[in-house]
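Morning. Coffee machine broken again, so started the prediction first thing and wrote up yesterday's gels while waiting. Chain of 458 residues, entered below exactly as on the submission form.
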Amino acid sequence: MSSAPASCPLPDPYTPGHGSADYRVSRYELYLDYRVTTNRLSGHAAITAQSCAPLDRIVLNLAGLRVLKVQLNGQRVQRFSQRGNQLIIIPARPLATGTDFSLDIRYDGTPGPLRGNWGDVGWEELTDGVLVAGQPTGAPSWFPCNDHPSQKASFGYTVTTEANYRVICNGVLVSRHAKASRETWVFEQAEPMATYLATVQIGRYDLRPLAFQTHDPAHRADAPHGSRGPVPQYIAAPPALMASAAAALGRQGQMMESFEACFGPYPFANYTVVVADDDLEIPLEAQSLAVFGPNHLSQQWNDQRLIAHELAHQWFGNSLTVKTWADIWLHEGFACYAEWIWSEASGQATAQQRATAAWQGLSSQAQDLLVGDPSPELMFDDRVYKRGALALHALRRASGDVPFFEFLRSWADSYRHGGVTTADLMDTADRAFVELPGFNARTIFTPWLYRAALPPLP
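Came back before lunch.
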């Protein structure tokens, strides 16, 4: 069956060898059988896709796991091979441009993280359980995929593991059922998602709704599908850590309310914070959830800002996802600025005071990085976060508060569940502020993003 061909991006130069421009995936169905005690994974991936070009081979990313069997459109494929982090499938006959096709891939092995410029990413064993943190190239450590940030698809998960563990995946829990000493958990992530955001968390977790106060119980009256009331929020934590987790997250409901007011309706069905039993270097975000270590559970600003930061990524990073990693500031600069917004909303330092402190810190550091194209090695450098946030603060100072937050809501709504670029942002800003005399988004953003020297404090 053929239809109009999908629009496919070019491979990303920041992550060579990851992602193919020859086809686009619309759906991943992942069936995983995992044994915690031996770190043994048996996987079955059912993938629905469409070709963007004539295909005499289909290249997916998969690393460290052995492929046992491949079917294309229900027929067994005789020729496939694995080289490095790639699975190469040779169809019996080439696929024409615009052809819809399905892949069924069986694989197994002992998954582990992949090492790159950013340390270990992907599937990682905890002391007692599993954590998956895929940004930016960790997804192939546990399932075959077209690993590119713009390749967004819906996901279904069916995960079977030992019965005394809880499984948490992106999206909504559809069902769970136990059989003997094993339990199966089924999740549905309906909104499109980049592969690096896909996750499985497994641990001896209790799950509780997050108890919180909001200023306005009906503040989500404008949310999609007519939903009302606060966003359902949950804490998953080992029983011994639940009380400290609940205390640390006590203001997250107000954060959600503030961010909905600033960014528009929360873009997913729910939000879960997982607290691992092991200390973590940094918190980790995935679509509809975030993962913290027990070392992040305090009332101090440095931990509270991280809670705000990961929550803000649900809008900027997960709903709006960069088409290319060079634009990573569209994730991290926005999430950093959300920290300052929460600081202001919660009666602490104002955004201007946070901006001043950030600018002073940057002024004493090397000024040799272009935030709008920082290089693969420096894409997660703190200067990308802080200068990205300062670029937004400069826009706010130039436009005024009311137009600025109207612009943020328009930006989040216009590209909801889609891919974005810095050029998209500038064009949206120019349209939003067309009535401001002399306004030009590129004039404001270029010194912060595309020149190494630090601009004056806005």
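Residues 23-114+132-195 form a domain with the Immunoglobulin-like fold (CATH 2.60.40.1730). Going to sketch it on the whiteboard this afternoon.
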